[in-house]
Amino acid sequence: MGITNVSVLPGCISCRNCESVCPAIFKVDPTSRVINRDYLPHAKEIFKAERLCPVNVIKVETTGNREPESEMAKGEAATLEKKAFLTRDVVELRFRTKGFSFLPGQYVSLSFRDAQGSFRRSYSIVSGDGSGFVLAVKLLSSGRGSKALQKLKVGDLVEYFGGMGHFVLRDSPTHKVFVATGTGLAPMMAMLAATPDSVPQTVIFGARTEGDLFYLERLRKIKNAKVIVTLSQPGAKWKGAAGRVTDHLGIVTPQSEVYVCGNPDMVESVKKALHDAGHDSGLVFAEEFVAQGSTASDAEKSRGTLSFLKRIVLDGEIPGLVIATVQWTFIAFAFAVPFLWGFFPKLRTELWSVSWISVVALMAVRPLADIFPKISLFRALIPLRQWLGILSASVVVTNLGFTAWNSWDSLVSSYLSARGWRVSSRALFARVSEITAVLLLVTSNAWSQRTLRANWKRLQRLSYAYFFSAGIILHWYGQTSALYAMVAIAALWIAAEITKKVRARGASSK
Fold first, then answer.
1. Rounded-to-integer distance, Cα 147 and Cα 302, Å
2. How many helices (H) and strands (E) does the chain have?
3. Residue 258 pairs with which residues in a beta bridge?
4. Which of 98, 113, 330, 363 counts the most CB atoms within 10 A of its CB?
């Protein structure tokens, strides 16, 4: 009995739970991958990482009965001692347990069960000691974890893991700047409490409105700390600072340690602004709050189609099961392409159309996500790009395979003779399209990603050559829409690059 294989399926949200509990096996850069095949010494941590994954993309294959190993992955029990709202949608939860310990900045992972089964959610620790811990959590209307917390009553037991995470306070006398929005303030409270009074501290806390602020009194009581509270949508009576947190980074000195926590867009904006200002990236430590498998209930869906569409498009609340289903649909269709090509020749024109539409969609998702960062749907669709590529390339490779089957000598002559490459420009672009399709298809797997590492991403850039060579061929064969698609994609990528540069310049100038 033992672990025979560990893999990470598509859909990783880079929560770093796996790396936190089992750094010898998992590495997140930017999504999780397996870096070590020596499973035996780390079996307990591997099963724990599998259980802690909020989107269930870690797959552990074993021999024999798994019950003994799964027992090793159990967490500790904690009792809810106090529950109080800090704002209309931020709740403070105090849990009682035994022997709790953590490093300032870390989080705990709570286990829940609902009608859909067991799941976990991670929350930053506001404070804690040997007798328990405190959390500050923003409740989302359609969040699965939020619904579980809303139902949780004083006296209820929960299972937890932690503290965990690498976003921790450094033990140094250096000036520390804490930048947070929303409940990103939670881990900062623990860091502030652990920072000696002799160390200068600055807190930049941002929110939308005055009603979204909390812990202000506690912040103002911290010795030797400058507190900047800023609102992006201040009311007429607000007398404090206004604007985004990036508007107040002038207080950061070249020697400052900067801790950033909040939504990914804010974190990236702060990191970019500091980088452009010449701040040492080694002194910037960040934690992003990412969506963890949110789902909308039937009751919420019935509140209105427009409201539901808003949550899907703007909030990106696409259940992980939906993404996984679409991915497996793509891969199943890709495997079916040779069968359809061989037994239904009349469908070949439609299969070429599917291939082209798939690669156009693949090329459009990333720039759209960069141009419209507030529309989270585009970011949620990014994991589908790999499977769109597999589907598209499978048609080209299938055509190549049938050509080889019917006329192997002709195919070899086309690729291995100088004349085969000099026939025409059309033939040249066809060769480029076929070669890149083969390379992209055979490397679209976890083994290639692990083996090639950084070179794997470089290889994936062949998708540009594949897209434009295929588009040129289609255009030559009379499909004028291919030309329009190429122009549109090129315009999107140029617009995305310009947008990113404008945002970076704006952030650094504020």
1. 17
2. 20, 16
3. 177, 284
4. 363
Contacts made by residues 272-276, CB under 8 angstroms, sequence distance 24+: 272/503, 272/504, 272/507, 272/508, 273/246, 273/249, 273/504, 273/507, 273/508, 273/510, 274/249, 276/504, 276/505, 276/507, 276/508
Structure tokens of 197? Answer: 């009074």
Query: Residue 51 corresponds to which tokens in the numbers above?
Result: 């259980």
3-state secondary structure of 447: helix
- Is-cis flag, bond preceding 30, omega within 30? yes
pLDDT tens column, 123-168: 999 999 989 999 999 988 778 888 899 999 999 999 998 788 778 8
Report whether 174 contacts 204 (CB < 8 A).
no
CATH number of 76-164: 2.40.30.10
Pick the CATH number of 176-288 from 3.90.950.10, 3.30.990.10, 3.30.950.30, 3.40.50.80: 3.40.50.80
| Torsion sign (Cα): 172, 222, 288, 26 | positive
Q: What is the 3-state secondary structure (H, E, C) of 134-203?
A: EEEEECCCCCHHHHHHHHCCCCCEEEEEEEECCCCCCCCCCCEEEEEEHHHHHHHHHHHHHCCCCCCEEE
What topology does CATH give the domain 2-71? Alpha-Beta Plaits (3.30.70)
What mean pLDDT value characterizes the chain?
Answer: 81
Tokens of 404: 């080889």
> Domain residues of the chain, as ranges?
2-71, 76-164, 176-288, 320-499
What is the pLDDT averaged over residues 352-361? 93
- Give me the sheet containing 176-181, strands edge to edge: 241-242, 225-231, 201-207, 176-181, 257-262, 284-288
Q: Which residue has the higher pLDDT, 13 or 221?
A: 221
Alpha-carbon distances of 340 from 270, 346, 352, rounded to whole Å: 51, 9, 12
Q: Are 430 and 465 in contact (CB under 8 A)?
A: no
CA-to-CA distance for 225 and 242, rounded, in angstroms? 20
Residue 69: predicted pLDDT: 43
pTM of the model: 0.52
CA–CA distance, 251 with 179 (Å, rounded to integer): 11
In terms of C-beta density within 10 A (0-12 exposed, 13-18 middle, 19 or more buried), how is residue 166 classed? middle
